[in-house]
TrEMBL record:
Residues 184-293 form the Cyclic nucleotide-binding domain. This is Cyclic nucleotide-binding domain-containing protein. CDD domains: CAP_ED. It comes from the Eukaryota. SUPFAM superfamilies: cAMP-binding domain-like. SMART domains: cNMP. It comes from Alexandrium catenella (Red tide dinoflagellate).
Length: 309
């Protein structure tokens, strides 16, 4: 990979000899690239940048996002995502970093996580410019509809069906303050709630992808910023569908119940902000007066999880 950076004229010859690439996950296995015409995807790959990180190298520093219109695709290796020194997720070959920036979605505040290579890691840096150009190209109109729909729904636009048409009766919500305005924290102080927006990770899910499963341990609480999520419960014939502004998994994350009590599946493209249980517990250290409200016993009915006595 370093040879391609130093001698770009040797790029094609080097890539042809790197047969290990064919053994790993392929780029078109990522939902954001599914359906993209082969000529467009080939051009994206030809113009991709390459980086190599040794074990313990920093891939991304806190507050430094991926460049606008770009994402990092892990070819091989492994990396850890940490916030305030607490590991929240592990990335492996085939995972991507910076999807929101790739789709040119507005992120506020900037991501506060740090990504460290936990093994020797090869990544390619892909640009989305060619995809946005293809959306405007009549030759690729049908093939690019899934990509166009992803951008539109995740940015708060109309919810679209498989043909790119607006779904009747489905009003879109785009709530950038979904963490701060969550019902879960409605009786908490503003200084406490304000810090939580810096402790979350922005995640995107595509239609049909599972956010979490019933019975899993509740490591995360999810705040829906855009899109719709279907909640399925074993034995319940009718599924519930929720949208922007809803908080998912809060009872399990707060240990009010031993595990997630439903399965959450993306009904449309979904932008969620994920808060790890350990980070919530860390936040409470600075605000001990909030602990009774947040970690206390849940009240009944619709009164709210943390209502004062």
């Amino acid at each position: 990979m370093n040879a391609m950076v130093a001698f770009p004229e040797c790029r094609e010859a080097v890539l042809e000899n790197e047969t290990w690439r064919m053994d790993g996950p392929q780029l078109n296995s990522q939902r954001v690239f599914q359906g993209v015409p082969a000529p467009v995807l080939s051009r994206v790959m030809r113009e991709a940048g390459h980086k190599y990180f040794r074990q313990c190298d920093c891939i991304l520093h806190p507050g430094v996002p991926v460049e606008e219109g770009s994402l990092m695709y892990i070819l091989r290796g492994e990396a850890r995502i940490s916030i305030l020194g607490l590991e929240v997720r592990t990335l492996k070959a085939g995972d991507i970093i910076g999807l929101h920036k790739f789709l040119k979605l507005p992120q506020r505040p900037l991501p506060s996580y740090e990504i460290i290579a936990s093994a020797a890691t090869d990544v390619i840096i892909l640009k989305s410019g060619m995809l946005f150009e293809a959306v405007e190209d009549d030759r690729f109109e049908d093939e690019m509809k899934p990509f166009q729909s992803a951008v539109q729904v995740l940015s708060g636009g109309d919810i679209l069906d498989a043909f790119g048409l607006k779904v009747a009766g489905q009003e879109a919500k785009f709530l950038t303050d979904c963490v701060e305005q969550s019902e879960v924290f409605r009786v908490c102080s503003m200084p406490f709630v304000a810090q939580l927006a810096w402790l979350v990770e922005d995640l995107a899910f595509f239609p049909g992808e599972r956010i979490y499963s019933q019975g899993d341990e509740g490591f995360f609480m999810f705040f829906i910023q855009a899109g719709r999520v279907r909640l399925e419960v074993l034995g319940r014939p009718k599924h519930e569908v929720v949208d922007g502004g809803t908080t998912l998994g809060d009872m399990a994350c707060l240990k009010q119940v031993p595990h997630y009590t439903e399965t959450a599946i993306a009904e449309t493209h979904v932008w969620v902000r994920a808060l790890h249980r350990r980070l919530l517990e860390r936040a409470l250290v600075s605000f001990p007066e909030e602990e009774r409200r947040v970690m206390g016993q849940a009240s009944g009915g619709q009164a709210g999880v943390f209502e004062d006595d």
